Amino acid sequence: MSEMTYRDALNLALKEEMRRDPRVITFGEDVALYEGSFKVTRGLLAEFGEDRVRDSPISENTIAGVAIGAAMGGMRPVAELMTINFALLAMDQLINHMAKVRYMFGGQVFLPMVVRMPSGGGSQLAAQHSQSLETYFMHCPGMRIAYPATPADAKGLLKTAIRDDNPVVFIEHEILYNSKGEVPEDPEFLVPFGVCNVMREGTDVTIVGYGRMAVLSLMAAAELEKEGISCEVIDLRTLNPLDEATFLKSAARTGRAVVVEECWRTAGLGADIACRIFENCFDRLLAPVKRVSGLDVPMPYSRKLEKLCIPSVAGIVEAVREVMAASY
Amino acid sequence: MESKLRELLSDAELLGFYEQMVLSREFEESCAEQYTKGHITGFLHLYSGQEAVAVGTTAGLQKEDYILSAYRDHAQAIVRGADPNRVMAELFGKATGICKGKGGSMHLFDPKLNFMGGYAIVAGQFPIAVGLAFAAKLKQEERIVTCFFGDGSMNQGNFHEALNWSRVWDLPVLYICENNFYGIGTVVQRASALPALHRRTCGYDIPSEKVDGMDVIAVYEAVKRAAAWIRERQRPYFIEAVTYRFRGHSMADPATYRSSAEQEIWRSRDPIPNFAKRLIDEGITDQAALDEIDARCTARVEEAVRFAEESPWPEDSAVWEDIYV
């Protein structure tokens, strides 16, 4: 184990996988000479050369489509979209093509590709650079979706993503890039898809989060412990496949659940998770499931207003208190 | 002065061109009949009239070259070597279809033939073609990628992104524009600021030419030359094949936006009888031999329909298969 940032853990995963398999290549806007807008691809060009690490034109849909074609042609591309907001320009290739070709071609092709995309709000980047669009992808069958919360998972999930034969949308949180944690040095350290991380065990209430929301949930749980409330914090890790069993079992045991989502509340993934808990654990619930969500507004710039829009530790603490107080 | 056919190709090859065009036409006309009977459902875009483009292009390529297309893809797949039985079964939605009945008319695919798919979002195939070319170049393969598309797709952003990218990275892509003058019902002059489509590549420094898409030999020669050029230089090239679809955009389109005078002019340029006449005029064959080929193609397509009819439907369990590896 060594302590490193989420960013460096991602960088290490890329380097290890590129050393391990010459078919792994990466490209995107400013990933080579500039070493990535968030410096996740630092040092790759120097080590692997410009065939395997390439700057692309600002053409997001083609970045996604070239990854599809390269994967069909026998490579294992890791494409970078500068942020998830720009993934909207690539939705034709991601949704209409990447998620469909295996099925509509009768299973005759597979796409071992990863599309990385930094996501999330909280840096006063205003409405067009602060979105949390994970639900957009989660809605669509045909792709895997990973969203690490910790540096260790950043490394282990990205390595799994690169070795997976399915297309993977890999979402990274911009605010987590500088977060630090212990990361296994073992180059065979992999975090499997479809297995939640029970970050903290507890008995009174289950908090389900992902990405930065899992990190905030863990902080909220520490606060709540002081009040004598024991929280079980579950990080989904992958939104597809979704490890339903782990959070359902937990919610059935604690009888109370709070789902924390950074995306908009309306038709967000939190509604889906909450619904699954209701459908499967209804007779075990001691209180209605509660959601803590991003506000249903375009993100404002002003930091005073922006704070209102993103789930906070205080907001999660409050929601848990309400769930503890409520009963049927 | 027009080259004599025998200086270019063997008699067997020339008759092969004829047979492939006839097989394509017979297949498409049979599809129309099966659609009317309700055996083929969904969208059905037929290729009748454009056969010289698919046949001439495919003949000008190597077997290892990749081919991608749009949704008017039956002839391109069959000419490439796809089994007409399995293509027809696909259109019928049967389990024996080339994509197990999951893709249908617009999504034919056969990796064994390097036929890398029909794509039904206009211009969706461009970036994928560029990606395949990138893989081929990285792997230092000899192959090139041929990307078929219609005139309408040149007004999509994908077209511009892909052309630019393929030149910036210098990738071996052969762009074949099948200009049949209509994007559904919108004539090219009403959709493209520059109706001389091949001239639109100068903004990406990609050389281009226009070829008579009703002349299988002209297409073949242009593609053969272009493919050799691309293989040698590892750079993209663009061919505009001027052609015409004899039917509407799809079976749902009666094509009333085209005058009968216009249609008659193009009918007189039908690539099949014109090529037949040339074969006879140059003493390569006679009408009786061509009639035999025609009969063979008709029988081949009848067999495909029979195969499709007799094939089983997919099991219900197939609906959950082939989503993930």
UniProtKB/TrEMBL annotation, chain A:
One Pfam family linked to the record: Transket_pyr
UniProt keyword annotation of Lyase present: no
Keywords: Oxidoreductase, Thiamine pyrophosphate
Coiled-coil residue spans: none
Superkingdom of origin organism: Bacteria
Cofactor(s) the protein requires to work: thiamine diphosphate
Domain Transketolase-like pyrimidine-binding intervals: 4-179
Species, as recorded: Geomesophilobacter sediminis
GO molecular function: oxidoreductase activity
Keyword Cell division: no
Record-annotated membrane-spanning stretches: none
Signal sequence bounds: none
Protein name in UniProt: Alpha-ketoacid dehydrogenase subunit beta
NCBIfam families: PRK09212.1
PANTHER family the record matches: PYRUVATE DEHYDROGENASE E1 COMPONENT BETA SUBUNIT, PYRUVATE DEHYDROGENASE E1 COMPONENT SUBUNIT BETA
InterPro entries, sorted: THDP-binding, Transketo_C/PFOR_II, Transketolase-like_Pyr-bd, Transketolase_C
TrEMBL record, chain B:
Reactions it catalyzes: N(6)-[(R)-lipoyl]-L-lysyl-[protein] + pyruvate + H(+) = N(6)-[(R)-S(8)-acetyldihydrolipoyl]-L-lysyl-[protein] + CO2
Keyword presence, Chloroplast: no
Cofactor(s) in the UniProt record: thiamine diphosphate
GO biological process, one term: pyruvate decarboxylation to acetyl-CoA
Pfam families: E1_dh
Annotated EC: 1.2.4.1
InterPro entries attached to this UniProt entry: DH_E1, PDH_E1_Alpha_Subunit, Pyrv_DH_E1_asu_subgrp-y, THDP-binding
Record key words, sorted: Oxidoreductase, Pyruvate, Thiamine pyrophosphate
Domain Dehydrogenase E1 component: 20-314
Main enzyme class: oxidoreductase
Coiled-coil intervals: none
Listed GO MF terms: pyruvate dehydrogenase (acetyl-transferring) activity
Subunit structure: Heterodimer of an alpha and a beta chain.
Function in brief: The pyruvate dehydrogenase complex catalyzes the overall conversion of pyruvate to acetyl-CoA and CO(2).
Name used for this protein in its record: Pyruvate dehydrogenase E1 component subunit alpha
Protein's organism: Geomesophilobacter sediminis
Lineage start: Bacteria, Pseudomonadati, Thermodesulfobacteriota, Desulfuromonadia, Geobacterales
Gene name as annotated: pdhA
